[in-house]
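Risk mitigation, structural track. In case the binding assays with FE2/S2 (inorganic) cluster fail to produce interpretable data, a predicted complex structure has been prepared as a fallback.
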Amino acid sequence: MSLQSRIFASSQRGRATHPLLWTLAAILVVVLGVFAYIAFGPGPMDFASGKHVTLADYKGVNPTGVPKELQSASPIEKGEYLTRAADCMVCHTAKEGTPFAGGRAFVLPFGTLYSTNITADPETGIGHYSDQDFLDALHKGIGKNHTKLYPAMPYASYTYMSDGDALAIKAYLFSLKPVQAAAPANTLSFPFNQRALMSLWAAFFNPDRRFEPNAERGDEWNRGAYLVEAMEHCGECHTPRNLMFALNNRKKFAGEIQAGWRAYNISSDKGSGVGAWSDADLLHYLSIGHADGRGTAAGPMGEAVDGSLSHLQASDVAAMVTYLRSVAPVATSEIPAVNATPASATFADAKSADVRGKQVYEGACAGCHGWSGISPVLPFASLTGTRGVNDPKATNVAQIIIRGAQRHSMDESVSMPDFGTTYTDAEIASVANYVTGRFGAQGSSLTADNVAKLRAAD
Amino acid sequence: MSTTFTLNGQATTLEGDDAMPLLWAIRELAGLHGTKFGCGMALCGACTVHLDGQAVRSCVTPLASVAGRAVTTIEGLSSKQAKAVQAAWIDVQVPQCGYCQSGQIMSATALLEKNPAPTDADIDGAMSGNICRCATYNRIRAAIHTAATAAKA
Amino acid sequence: MSIAIFDKSKTSRRDFLKASTGLSAIALTIGFSWTGPSRRALGAPAEASFMPNAFVRIGSDNSVTVISKHVELGQGAYTGIATVLAEELDADWAQVRVESAPADAKRYNNLAFGTMQGTGGSSAMSNSWVQLREAGAKARAMLCAAAAHEWHVPASEISVEKGVLTHAASNRRASFGALVKTAATLPMPEKVELKDPKSFKLIGTRPPRVDVPSKCDGTALFTIDVVQPGMLVALLMRPPRFGGQVKSFDDSAAAKVPGVVKVVQVSRGVAVIAKTFWSAKVGRDALKVEWDESKAEMRGSAQMMAQYRELAGKPAASARNDGNAAEALTKAARRVAAEYEFPYLAHAPMEPMDAVVKLTAESCDIWTGDQFQTIDQMNAAQVAGLKPPQVNIHTLLAGGSFGRRANAYSDFIVEAVSIAKAHGADGTPIKLQWTREDDIRGGLYRPMYFHKIEAGLDANGKLTAWRQVIVGQSILAGTPLAAMMKNGIDPTSVEGAATLSYDIPNISVDLATTESKVPVLWWRVVGSSHTTFAVESFIDEMAHAAGKDPYAFRRDMLAHSPRMKAVLDLAAEKAGWNSAPLQKGRGRGIAVTEAFNSYVAQVAEVTVDEKGEIRVDRVVCAVDCGTAINPDIIKAQMEGGIGFGASAALYGAISLKDGHVEQSNFNDYRVLRMNEMPKVEVYIVPSSEPPTGVGEPGVAPVGPAIANAVFAATGKRHYQFPFAKGGAA
Ligand code: FES
Ligand code: FES
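Fallback model:
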């Protein structure tokens, strides 16, 4: 081969190669950038300016533990209160199952997860967990013999829980009757069935830090922060997730679809969040799952109120409200407008009303919800002004029609029958569209297929 | 645990669990049996009474929630429309087993008190929460139209 | 009763009502209500009275009280019975009231049931037609004799009209009441002339129903309204799976509920006895019961249906075999086959089951909307450890039944008696009240059935062969009524198919009887509730296969059934069958049947929207039930039957999953509502034949008529109930 030809050839190669390298490099940079952006995003409390100090160095009232009202309670009672506050039971109890015995299914986009038995049974439960094992599970997402837990277990939130509180919870769980109950095997698809990958996830997305009070905020704010973030783990449902299934705190509390239900925007945005709610609204909603003109919690939030929030001391709920109010507003578009004006009390409708939907509403719904949307029977059944009927996707309206609601933290327990088994997907879509059209700012246009999908999600 | 309200025009105080549905308070505490139990879930209308003039399902209305309000049962119907409805019911011979009919009449009366000349669609709207297993629906519709005409006269 | 009720108003005042001005008003309402029309149904003997026979009592106050041996379930029995008797008595309708007969099989047996007292099979009028006419005529004859005796004139010269006897010649008149004393002393005539139907004054007219006024002001007395001094209310927790048994129970929480008096175990479960329904309900909710389900039904209905489908391919018992269907099928020019699936159905009468029982060591009083007095008396006596005559049944108005209350197990009555017994049989009145959930999950359903039909047409499109196999549970097997079964065939499983009226040379109908722990029962129109659907939709399919008009195709095969043909013609004519076809998306369907010796044809018009939603717009119904005693009640029964049948066809289904009933209340056991009720037109064939049933026959043809109309509208056939669940081919 002649010199020229070699030069030619090499320059040929050169011309071919360099752009390729550059592209690869560029892509790599972008990927790393995106990843870094995701992985090193803000933590749940970073929105609040101010210097964080260790619990030990914090001058104010210790924000962890039980509220002052319970200082004199027995260790087990304290543990029970904290277990309530961390809302362990709802997830660790199967439908009609024994509390804490696990087996509740979580249908995820990539398969079904079953919650574990956290009673003290040595074989199927956590009876053989040492204190350290328990702390590792709550703080690091590492189970006994190093099984890596899925982040469906909100350890990225529980990691902020103090050791003392975590162990008080353990003590309480161990005080209960152990139950023999092995959870069904998870049905996750590859690569999600590779638990090892979870340690990678944890490495990036679990801060593995205990709660550090903000020295420049008051005691109430800090107590609220601890309850909301470390215990109640509100963000796990209400904060959108990123590509890596981790919380995206740049949009903290902006709302997300969880288990087929819409977890609403609870940031302090006036339009799309709870910024316009009065303190009383928030207090009521958190303590009984209902606020007049705002709505009644059902589905997962109903469970959170019945199982956890409604058991908190008033002082703790007030602290949570203080903290929630301080969260930065994030405007979102899911619910463009909220109509707070009742519909006409007669059954007259705009021409466009869904005829079949109206027929179902007449027969099965009007008796309780009335024609105006203000229930003649029970405030809990009023629809006017709620975010549900103003959601143009009618997600929660359809869900509650399908599954009904059973709530028991009001003075008397309140329930709505589930109509999922008798009405067809098309009928449920129709009545949901009718309800949003009649009472909401902007009607929905659900189809039978949408309803079928909502049925499937759980 | 005691609730004071107006029952068929009379001040009444009933001693009962706050969560006890108005239906059972009316039937078992006040001893008025015209209001019937059919489902206990606001699905059939047999228990329909008027709460401040509006037709409601007493089986899901907690006794405590009617404190200070006015409840009318079939025994207390007195309005011109109510009388017209009851007369029309007899004239058209609506009832079969009759068990649902107190509720039907309460719903129909509430309708006519608000809407003197209901269309068939209005009637569907007001009445389809009232189940009749004997399927007297067509006669109910006819009787409501008859009553509407009579009440206007 | 009225006394007891009045006591209740006092009790309720004493126990519950705070002194308030409302008090007296409430008391008055109650006090007065019992002098209201509801008394008619209950009857209150006038001081002096004349009772010529078991069916009528005439008071000095001119009241004519007809004693009804049949329960008023809404079907109009009280009025029909009173009409027939008052006709021959020439009473004035205004003086007629009705009282229900006590349980007494000797005097009040249903002549269609032999020696048993009871209501069912749409037989109330047919079995008592002659009996009541004679009772009325004899009473009339005795009143005439009494007048003749007092006026010294020949009885033959005395005329009776509207409750007044007149001797024209001597211009003397007397009301019934004035003659009761004398009449009571006279002998009962052996034989009497019955009226010539031409001179009927009440029969064939529209005397208003005796029970309607009390059903329009809330005074009608149903079981749920019965109050006895010191009465307690019981709710029973039953096994979650049929065939389950109580293993153990924990009543610590239930016992703490205010108002709960006692928690007792009985054979069918654990009962919470309390001062009020609400306490009993809260108590039952707090009850924890462990069940032994080793003998319970664990299958799901889908699984059972799959087994039925298999059985349909195996040899079964023959219910009918004309000619040789198998061979004729092989010869047929064209063969068509279809399979039909029918779910369990609950009756869901508007009044959930209930009964009040007062049990002592010597006697048992039962207040309920009783439909099978003799059997209930026997079953109650057995549980109570008494003799049947010691059981007094007070039959009250029933808030619907549709077959539910007529069951050989006396289920809810036996429950109530066993609870009263467990409470100590101390004479404390106890009301057992079912909730709607108890009712929907309580079993005694219309059985689930599978039908397979294959038929053959000859070259000219004539039906030459028909082979039908029916698979399902027997209603009669294992009950005292099993005697009605002949060589393994439960007639209630095959009626309407084995009795096929069409002229088809080769017919075979086989029955495979299945078993399950799920208790089953007749449901309005019994066998025809499924057989007529299968037969009449398949006949329609065959008509299309033969390229013939469904109406003409049927008509051609009814040469030997003139009455059936007549109703078919009448319905087709009134519906404008041959008039212009309906516009796109709409269709007409026809069906005809014979049930309980009545003939009914119906034409349904439906609209099917683009979403496939079926709306039944109109049903035209022609019925031949012999002599039309009260045309308006016949019309009402057809309207009601059409609504009831359409409800099941469109929405009705009870399904099981692992032995658990999936439905619980009207939210998931959907029934027809006002806005879903079709317009109904009823035409009655004039007839002087004896009256036949009207309570049930109207239910049978509506399902297939709708299905055939849907086919006409869409070209799509339904082979499964209910249509709304999309049971499409
Ligand atoms: S009993 Fe209240 S609606 Fe059925
Ligand atoms: S008349 Fe029987 S339920 Fe309506």
